Structures are given as C-alpha cells and as structure tokens.
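re: that chain from earlier
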Amino acid sequence: MNVLFLKTVALATMIIDHYGAIFQSGENIYRIIGRIAFPVYCFLLVEGYFHTGDVKKYGKRLLLFALISEIPFDLAFYGKVGFTHQNIFFTLFIGLAAIYFLEKKERKYSFNKNLVIAAAGILAMFLFVDYSIMGVIYILSFYFTRDFSKKRQILYMAVIMLFTNLMSSPLQQFSLLALPLIYFYNGEPGLKNKFLQIMFYAAYPLHLLLFYFFK
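^ sequence. v structure.
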C-alpha cells in the first residue's frame, strides 16, 4: 500500500464520514467507516514531513487550504459562518509546526520539547480545531514512533489511541481500523504529480460545499 492508496482511502472514508454526519446522523455505520480517515492523514502528514523538499512550503499549503476550507466547513456542518470549530487543515498545520520545531531544536532553535508539545496541544484547544488536542496526540505519536519497527509502532499506536480515544465518543475507538492499512504501507509514493496533489487538497472544501448545497 503506497501513499496514493492511503490518500485515496483517507479521502473516501472522510467523505463517507461527512455524509453520515450531515445527512444520516442516526446511522453510525457512516461514522464508523469515517474513523479510518484521520489516523491515516496523521500518518501521512508525518511521512510527508520527512519526504517533502520544502517543509515551509508544505506548511503554507496546509494553512492556505485551512483558510479556504473554513467557510465551506462552517456552512456544511453549521449552516452559517462562525468560529466555534475550525477545520481539520488547522489541526494538521499545528501538528506539522510542532514536528518542525521539535526537529529544529538541536540545530537552530532552542525550544524545550515538552514546551513545544504543550504549546501545540493548548493551541489546538484554544482554536477549537477538529479533533482538538487528540489530533495533536495522534500526529506526535506517529512522529515519535516513526523509527520503531512496524509491528512495534502499530502496537504503541494502538495503545495510545485506545487511551486517547477515551476523551471522545465511543465511536472513536473504531479509528484503530486504520492501523492495519498503515502497517502494510510500503514506503512508496505511487503515482505522483502536481494535479493529483492539488486535487487531494481541493477535494476537502469542494465536497463540503457540495454537501452544503445539497442540504
């Protein structure tokens, strides 16, 4: 399973999840399937950090789509524009920034690792981003276990997710369904070009806009 396959699975399960949340709120099956998406995105974010040629450009792209997606996100889920809950791109941006400062600590910056982790968690809660501090924990857990053997990483992540998910709804425990997919990741990018890259980003605000209009 390469990057393209994981991205496709994450996108498809996310759209199914959003469909269930917006149109089928009484049917848990859509939300259960949707729990697969976020752990895969967190894993791919960490992999992306270590494979991108320009981390700052990567971060700017995440932030740009966070801003672009906010109005579609608010309209699709709340029917109006507000600041009560920010979309998932903000969560991913915070996670990427935390990794950046953790990695830079020994070279240019002198931030304490615990301070960086705490700041990322507090910022996620303060901004009311999707998945809140739990999202930061997922991302940084994949980061800190990246050099483990695959079996050891999956085991650690299962334990971390089991306990972290307790701060959310019981349905969040189905996020562990993402771990077998991550286990079989082969480290290959798969088909890769600029068009596909942009489409995977643009699919987020576009499908939310469509759901809003259909609703």
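Residues 55-78 form the longest helix (24 residues).
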